[in-house]
Each structure stands twice: as C-alpha cells, then as structure tokens.
Amino acid sequence: MNKIVKVWYTIGRESTYNGLGVIAMTTKTAVLAEGTGNERNVGRLVALMTATAWVLLGIGLLLSLFNLHDFSDRNTSLMVGVGFMVGSVHIYVIRTAIHLVHSRAKAEDESK
Prior knowledge:
By secondary structure, this protein is α+β, with helices and mostly antiparallel strands.
C-alpha cells in the first residue's frame, strides 16, 4: 500500500505586494511506497539518551556533593552540578517522549 504525501515548498523569492511581503507557496504530491527503508529504529537512540542522562546525573551529583561546603550562587562548580542534574532530567523526558511516540506509531502500523 502506498502513502500519498503533500509537501509544501516555496517557489521564487519573497516579493512585495501593496507594501506586504508575499512568498509564493505551492504543494507537490509525492507517492511513497511502503517499506522503502524509511522506518527508523529508535531503540539505539533511546538507549543512548538513557545512558547519557544517567551519566550527566552522576556528574551533576558528584560536582554538587563535593562543593556543598559553600552553598551559594557564587559557587560555580555547585551551579554547574545543578545544571547537569537539570539537563539530565530534560534529556530523560525527551527520551521518554521519543519512545512513546515511536511506540504509538508502531502500534498504529501494526493495527492496520
């Protein structure tokens, strides 16, 4: 079964019409065959992001714990450690979103 995809693209350059900027846009229809190799295996990406998040969390904990003696915003290593911990949480949340979207798309494909 083939998928029909509409692709938006710009043609020409931006021009002005009565003082307003106008960009000419059009659509092009493309047919994609099923199983063209565009399927993505995100398992490796999810594993890499999980490992990265845990490593950054560990670095952040170490930096923070070794520099708790001067607990202030002027303690650069403490602030960098906190930044590493916050960043690791963000990476893990993005990893979870990618994993959920991929799982849902895979389940939809299997149900068809």
